[in-house]
Specification:
The structure is a homodimer of 253-residue chains. The first copy, chain A, has 253 residues and is α+β, with helices and mostly antiparallel strands. Chain A has 4 helices and 15 strands. Chain A has helices at residues 10-18, 53-60, 123-139, 146-161; strands at 2-8, 30-36, 39-45, 64-72, 88-92, 95-105, 164-171, 175-179, 185-190, 195-197, 204-206, 216-221, 232-233, 239-243, 246-247. Chain A has a 7-stranded antiparallel β-sheet, with helices on one face. Chain A binds chain B through residues 36-46, 53-54, 57, 61, 81-85, 89-91, 93-96, 114-120, 136, 140-141, and chain B through 36-46, 53-54, 57, 61, 81-85, 89-91, 93-96, 114-120, 136, 140-141. Chains A, B: One of its GO terms (molecular function) is transferase activity.
Chain lengths: 253, 253
């Protein structure tokens, strides 16, 4: 989720969490990270989301954030363990970066120089460490502009995606990058707001009752969360940048 | 807390959390990190611990861990914000490191080379980044032995502590280092276990009912948590290493 005003994710998370063992088979852990200013609240659990006391907390505690990344895991590489749960968090340029991956990478063994090393044993965390290492090597101590970052990530992400399926989300608190290999959709919720109905549970919310006309919220998912909103599919290979709840145009190469 | 078997901290946390705005004035946020294997559960909140829904979760959800670091904050440097809440987490040598600081550092502005940079604006996070940078510079890509690490940390920590008050805790999941400038105490709970009574709330627990004779738990605090256990005071300038619930002898210099 990427938005222009701090928004709670209780509604979307309620449907999403059902896929962690109930309406889908992603029961090998889950996690969610909320940016609040420069800080991050990071919750991970190796239990299925539907059985997790921490997931219950999130469903009832409206944490407001402009950038949230959540993940439910079906283990493909790496055992079921806390250190293998997404999202992963690292620091670069004095900002936290949050990353989650859906998919599977084959024969992906990049040289890691030690600046970022995986703690667990997933292809995903390896890809995240490699990605940050490449950004640091490319730009050194000086953080790039948003356009430079978007362009550089395009190259790095394409290189990783050549190893398999790499649907991924990456945020450093203001912008949210989303890359599609196979499955990624987004919706922008804005005025005039409608009543949305979850696909995974019999819950609806009338967003017009909980928003102002200036609010804008982009939700990016591997599978649409609601049955009565129009979700836009990403193209395979597309890397989109969301800022203030809106997709930015692609950078000029 | 450092122990030889995964132990829940519900009892000690219940007393500790009362100091976050109730029996003490540390109401500018709080945090706690639990190691589970190589993974970390990290909870931070800029709200006072006594008013925090997340603290309520921790008080009732028995997360079992062999290494836990918790902190309640009284802001001395850095505003009340999520990014300034301890403990802080970073990765070095493919392990997470968790750090919390009690005290205040003056004129502490070390040169940071960019490998670790503070996200917030506390003297504490700056000290943590500097400490990890020095370890990485000293040992490079190869993690040192525990004895080498203890000896190296002794020098780094003494240099930081020369700038003011530096009571601190540091763990990478197996060992826990504790440095005292002014206030630090520890107790080792082991067989035969007694009934302990919290200082901050009218709660007791008979540890013999919830332990086995082989369990050993060290609890290290800035102020003793119970009224009927014998807490050992650290000496000023002392850096102790705890492993499996027990203080190790100091390294030979």
């Amino acid at each position: 989720m990427n938005c222009n005003v701090p928004t709670d994710i209780v509604f979307s998370f309620t449907g999403f969490a059902m896929r962690g063992g109930h309406t889908d088979t992603h029961h090998d852990g889950w996690g969610i990270a909320f940016f609040e200013g420069a800080g991050v609240r990071h919750f991970v659990d190796h239990q299925a989301a539907i059985a997790s006391p921490v997931a219950e907390l999130i469903k009832h505690y409206p944490i407001k954030s402009t950038n949230v990344i959540a993940h439910i895991r079906k283990a493909t590489q790496g055992r079921v363990a806390l250190e293998n749960c997404h999202p992963f968090v690292r620091e670069l340029w004095g900002r936290y970066w949050v990353f989650a991956h859906n998919g599977d990478l084959k024969d992906f063994a990049p040289v890691l120089d030690g600046s970022y090393r995986p703690v667990g044993c997933t292809d995903s965390e390896r890809a995240f460490c490699y990605l940050l290492q490449q950004l640091q090597a490319r730009f050194g101590a000086v953080p790039p502009s948003r356009g430079e970052l978007h362009a550089a990530l395009g190259g790095i992400v394409a290189g990783i995606a050549a190893h398999g399926t790499f649907n991924m989300l990456l945020s450093s608190g203001t912008e949210l990058f989303a890359h599609c290999s196979t499955n990624l959709f987004y919706v922008v919720r804005q005025h005039p707001f409608v009543t949305a109905k979850l696909s995974d549970e019999d819950v609806s919310v009338d967003f017009s009752q909980v928003t102002t006309p200036d609010d804008r919220v982009a939700v990016i998912v591997t599978q649409p969360l609601t049955t009565n909103e129009i979700w836009t599919a990403f193209l395979p290979g597309e890397l989109k940048l969301f800022v203030d709840g809106w997709p930015e145009p692609a950078p000029i190469a």
